[in-house]
Amino acid sequence: MGKILNSVGQLVQFQKLYNDKxxxxxxxxxxxxxxxxxxxxxxxxxxxxxRFGKTVMTNLISSYYAKGLDSAEIFDKLKVADIxxxxxxxxxxxxISLYMSEQxxxxxxxxxxxxxxxxxxxxxxxxxxxxxxxxxETELWDALNDIFYETxxxxxxxxxxxxxxxxxxxxxxxxxxxxxxxxxxxxxDKPYVELxxxxxxxxxKKYSSGSELNMFDEFYFPTDTIYDTFFGFSEEEVxxxxxxxxxxxxxxxxxxxxxxxxxxxxSLGSRLYNPRSINKALNQNTVKDYWTETGPGTEILELIKNxxxxxxxxxxxxxxxxxIYFPFRYFKTEFANLRTRQDILSIMIIYGFLSYYKDYVNIxxxxxxxxxxxxxxxxxxxxxxxxxxxxxxxxxxxxxxDTKKMEEILEFVHNTEVPILQYNDENSLSCIVNLIxxxxxxxxRIEREEKTGKGFADFIFYPLNxxxxxIILELKKDDTPENAIAQIMERKYYTKLLQCKDGNPxxxxxxxxxxxxYDTKNKSHRCVVQRLDELQ
Length: 536
Hints:
By secondary structure, the protein is of the alpha/beta class. The protein has helices spanning 8-19, 29-36, 54-65, 72-75, 86-89, 110-128, 140-151, 173-187, 235-247, 254-261, 275-284, 296-306, 308-319, 341-350, 366-376, 383-400, 403-415, 426-436, 481-490, 495-498, 532-535, and strands at residues 43-47, 94-99, 155-160, 193-200, 217-219, 233-234, 264-265, 271-273, 324-325, 355-357, 360-362, 444-452, 455-463, 470-477, 500-501, 504-505, 511-519, 524-531.
């Protein structure tokens, strides 16, 4: 065993994960990989956003396959133990694990970067195969070829964060070519390769129709139907984890996790949660923003601000709760020269800042919305920043029944030069409601067109703290707010707010009934706010 070849380090890391009280068994992926070993389909590249368990999976895979390890104590208890060829592959392969995010302390260019990784592998090979008399100055692939032809031993290659080079300070176009050539020489058409498994965020960069790495089958986040269930937690898995949390004395509800972290989908439409946030929330028994503040994701938000003209209307609509039609046809694979709408939105999908499903994109959940809110409040966003600032005032005015202030804010919003504010229909007015109550999401779960009573309420503001005031809001165009309120009462849109859940009332305090209208002839808004108990 060495540091790179059949390393015990990956088993130690996987053991930590296995010992976690919220461990989710994803070992069934090994069934797929076993089928690929020594076949024409043995080059696999899986790309996923950050925080979706890619490195965790490489530790699992290495721990299962690597010679010299004894990982049966763990894997005998996992799903993979039920497959026919489980024992045939358990700790029976040479595994070379490359973690491309690692680099030497002094790394000036791609040559320093590659020499660092080559040296570590050659050092392990020299120790493990002394009879092959390897030359430390030889090319890595030549050394591996020598080992194969002398011993017939072959290798599984696990390359984690293969795209780290493209985010590095020493990235250049020429360096990228050298890096891809290195991977090609190491892996392509080599008899010593049993399986090559790569993961990263970015799809494989292609410089020409004859790509250096065209032997890989690539499985992208928005389109993968083979490995989609192995990355991220399913809805059923999250519900089961909530039960574990309850048994451990925790108080996390599934509905809380859904509000904060739900919103991603497999290509077939099943819900997906990012594992890191779920695990953090359950272990800390606190639902909040766990999205890390550093890394390429933060750069993407900076790019929105720097190129706001290209995506301003899209961002405005998505923050207001709308989905944007965006056929996802190509991948932008580096941050340089991100200028067009296609470039910016596509890379935001790849990094997980936007959810994609069937040619529509949206902001997936409250955790990500908190990131967009920081952008909205930046002065570079112009009138959008003003809309965000007004949202606090709008909520305060509504709770106080200050309809004059509410109408003033609506007039301000309507008079801004926002393309979606043409009020062509009530849907446009709904977008405005989402914007002017943007910061209300800190205190409310806001549901649009919620089925309740005898129909669908336009908006219901469910208080996160049941001692806070709830709000039912109905919109009308060329009508009166009094008629809007009458509709709420006639169709009993307040029904759900009066019900109990888990033995507790949804709302313990006041319920406000709000009618909001726009008169297209007079170009004016009217609002009426009343307490439900005064109307019953």
